Amino acid sequence: MAEYGLNVFDSLGVKTLGMEDFTIQRLSSKIIPAITAGGGGVRSNYDIIMDVPGYDPAKCFVLITPRKYAGYDQTISDSWPVLPTYKELGGTQIGIRTWLNYGVYDGHRYKYYWSARTVECVVEVMRVT
Fold this sequence. Notes:
0% of the residues lie in helices and 50% in strands. By secondary structure, the protein is an all-beta fold. This is Phage protein.
C-alpha cells in the first residue's frame, strides 16, 4: 500500500516521524465566485477579509484550490482565469485579492488599470498540530 506525505528515517532506516504524528484541522473554508471585471486606476484594497479564529501563521497554511480545471493544456493566456492571492493582515485576519494592477505605456507615460479574472475556487485555512 502506498504511503503519502512526510516520512523521516534515521541512519538505521527506522522511521522517526510520519504523517501519523500530525493532525490537520480545517479552521475555515470559503467559496470565492468567478469574477471578470476591470477598470481604470490602481487598487490596493482586499475583496474579501477572512477573520479565522485560531489562525496562527506559524502553525497554519492557506490552500486555494480551483473548482474547475481547463480540459486542455494550459499556457499563459488571457483565455483562462487565474487564482486569487492572499496576504496575512495580522492577528487572525487574511486578505483575499482577486485582481491585479498593470500599466500600459502610451508613449510618454504609463496608464494604470486593474483586472480581475478569477476562476471559482475554495479558500481553506488549515492548522497543523
